[in-house]
Amino acid sequence: MMMTINSICVCGAGTMGSGIAQAAAQTGFHTILYELNESVLEKAKKGIHQNLESLVTKGKSTPEIMQGVIGRIRFTNDLQDCLADIIIEAIVEKTEPKIALFNQLAELNHSEVIFASNTSSLSISRIAEGVQNPKE
């Protein structure tokens, strides 16, 4: 059975998370960017706007395309909003917070959701071991 991907949620609005969210929205996906810290979320929002405006200024995009991309991103600090077909975590590089986040998200989302991690230094197997129903 093939799953249709319509929405992507990125958890963590730092440099990597906001970049992933922008790329997802530019590709046409409805995107949720979740960040608990309101000031980090606001900084990400401003950064994405600046990146898109820069593309328009350089002639690599149009104002209409820019508005479409912005319109596809929902910025939130409410975990209850994190409902999507794919969820990508890009939070602090510590195993326990990643496991806790995935477990909270697993309770909110249906069993077909794809969970992914942006970790570059932690064992993904170790993270998966701590997640409830990692194969579902």
Shape: globular
CATH topology of the largest domain: Rossmann fold
Q: How would you characterize the largest beta sheet? A: 5 strands, parallel
Share in β-strands: 15-25%
Number of continuous helical runs: 5
In percent, how helical is the residue content?
A: 40-55%
Number of strands: 5
CATH superfamily of the largest domain: NAD(P)-binding Rossmann-like Domain
Q: Give the N-terminus to C-terminus distance in angstroms.
A: 14 Å
Global Rg: 15 Å
Number of spatially distinct domains: 2
Strand arrangement, largest sheet? 3-2-1-4-5
Describe this structure in words.
This protein is an alpha/beta fold. The protein has 2 domains: 68 residues, 3-Layer(aba) Sandwich (Rossmann fold), CATH 3.40.50; 42 residues, no CATH class. A 5-stranded parallel sheet has the order 3-2-1-4-5, sandwiched between helices. α4 links the parallel β4 and β5. It is globular. The two termini are 14 Å apart. The model has no long low-confidence stretch (mean pLDDT 93).
